[in-house]
């Protein structure tokens, strides 16, 4: 999970503060020393750490904190607010006022530009855009093919003209193509280099002046910490970027780039990528990220993920079935599959308040269990799924061998299912009673 190392250290520091009934100046100062160390170890820019600690100290040592009934909480609140401020205060959105909107993706080779172009197209398509991906990376072998594969798997058209023409010509032709085909969003995947070099910058400047992108988005690998911040400074000076997309946040335990890049460049982080799958992209919300780092959870992102993953018609059907008490294993399977779409269980649980790394380790977070349950249900006949009463011991043996599990596993699943059903019955019964009593609408 992103920021694990930093989150754990900060949470430990604050656990000590929370435990104290009253705080004095030296308590706050020593906590802030720990916060400072944690931020430096997380590879946050030194000057930014210094300013940050100064601001928090000034606010935290103020009378209203030390005299308050919950001084520890007040300090955490201040740190939360200042972390949020550091990352840009509010969510920064893409400006879609131009039609078509042209997003030019830039960054070093390997940062994740091509993958991110696809991810971005996908998340914006879900919001109603009609994107066109444009392959302008004519240098990296296989970059064009890679974009085509990404586009195909997302059902997003890809405009390419091979690697013989100049990126400027390709970009211009793509623009015409998009207008003709009603694509209101153009995402241009440009070439990167292993290091910043002048040729690259000149080429990007040429594309910029010829297609006049609505936004230039810099893709940086957050795992490279301060290097990513330095790269961002140079790209911003040369090209004038409009925002950043951080990739590989899933592997970034430190968080230095995410915490410093906004303050150093003055440009907002617009999206964060958290895995290799094409759905592993999130809008970047500074306040939610700060809460996650401090172990306060990110319930809002969790709700959004659920809304995206759950099919509304299926939810309605499920509700009806719950009410009429004919929820069967087919529905159970459906539910499992929809939950799986939300991502690994550990990531989902990680967004709940109080769920730090340690807490997660204590819970058996086993995504394989999902697969096992799925395999067992899939080995049942439709009749068995509708009515579990027909599953006698012979059938259990057949289901176990068909799903590569044991009879005990089948029994466990049947028990879980019957408990779920019982719970649903109680719940709907309760709801009916409350309705009768006029307590609910
Ligand atoms: P490009 O050279 O900038 O176009 O980079 P690519 O899009 O080819 O990505 C380089 C590598 O990083 C690929 O193996 C991607 O799968 C991987 N990658 C990109 N984004 C992420 C991410 O958010 N998390 C992880 N774990 N891997 C990523």
Automatic annotation (TrEMBL):
Residues 99-246 form the AAA+ ATPase domain. Residues 2-87 form the Signal recognition particle SRP54 helical bundle domain. Its EC number is 3.6.5.4. It is found in: Cytoplasm. Coiled coil: none annotated. CDD domains: SRP_G (cd18539). Part of the signal recognition particle protein translocation system, which is composed of SRP and FtsY. Involved in targeting and insertion of nascent membrane proteins into the cytoplasmic membrane. Binds to the hydrophobic signal sequence of the ribosome-nascent chain (RNC) as it emerges from the ribosomes. The SRP-RNC complex is then targeted to the cytoplasmic membrane where it interacts with the SRP receptor FtsY. This is Signal recognition particle protein. It comes from Helicovermis profundi.
């Amino acid at each position: 999970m992103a920021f694990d190392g930093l989150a754990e250290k900060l949470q430990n520091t604050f656990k000590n503060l929370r435990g104290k009934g009253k705080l004095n100046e030296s308590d706050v100062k020593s906590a802030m020393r720990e916060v400072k160390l944690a931020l430096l170890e997380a590879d946050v820019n030194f000057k930014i750490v210094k300013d940050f600690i100064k601001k928090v100290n000034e606010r935290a040592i103020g009378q209203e904190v030390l005299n308050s009934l919950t001084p520890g909480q007040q300090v955490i609140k201040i740190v939360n607010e200042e972390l949020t401020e550091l990352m840009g205060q509010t969510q920064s959105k893409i400006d879609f006022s131009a039609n078509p909107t042209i997003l030019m993706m830039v960054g070093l080779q390997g940062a994740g530009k091509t993958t991110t172009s696809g991810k971005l197209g996908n998340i914006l398509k879900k919001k109603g855009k009609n994107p066109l991906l444009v392959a302008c990376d004519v240098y990296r072998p296989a970059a064009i093919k890679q974009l085509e594969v990404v586009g195909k798997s997302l059902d997003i058209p890809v405009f390419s003209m091979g690697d013989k023409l100049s990126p400027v010509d390709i970009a211009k032709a793509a623009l015409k193509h998009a207008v003709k085909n009603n694509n209101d969003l153009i995402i241009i995947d440009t070439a990167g280099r292993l290091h910043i070099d002048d040729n690259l910058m000149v080429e990007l400047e040429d594309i910029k002046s010829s297609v006049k992108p609505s936004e230039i988005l810099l893709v940086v690998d957050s795992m490279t910490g301060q290097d990513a911040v330095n790269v961002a400074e140079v790209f911003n000076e040369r090209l004038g970027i409009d925002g950043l997309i951080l990739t590989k946040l899933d592997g970034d335990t430190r968080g230095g780039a995410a915490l410093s890049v906004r303050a150093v460049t003055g440009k907002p982080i617009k999206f964060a990528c958290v895995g290799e799958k094409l759905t592993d992209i999130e809008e970047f919300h500074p306040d939610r990220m700060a809460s996650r780092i401090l172990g306060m959870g990110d319930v809002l992102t969790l709700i959004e993920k659920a809304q995206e993953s759950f099919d509304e018609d299926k939810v309605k059907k499920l509700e009806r079935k719950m009410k009429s008490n004919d929820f069967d294993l087919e529905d159970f399977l459906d539910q499992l599959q929809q939950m799986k779409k939300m991502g690994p269980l550990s990531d989902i649980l990680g967004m709940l308040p109080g769920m730090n790394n340690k807490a997660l380790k204590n819970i058996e977070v086993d995504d394989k269990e999902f697969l096992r349950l799925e395999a067992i249900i899939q080995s049942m006949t439709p009749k068995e799924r509708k009515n579990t009463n027909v599953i006698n011991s012979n059938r259990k043996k057949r289901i176990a061998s068909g799903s590569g599990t044991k009879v005990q596993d089948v029994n466990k699943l049947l028990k879980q299912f019957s408990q779920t059903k019982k719970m649903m019955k109680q719940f709907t019964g309760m709801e009916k009673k409350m309705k009768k009593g006029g307590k609910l609408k």
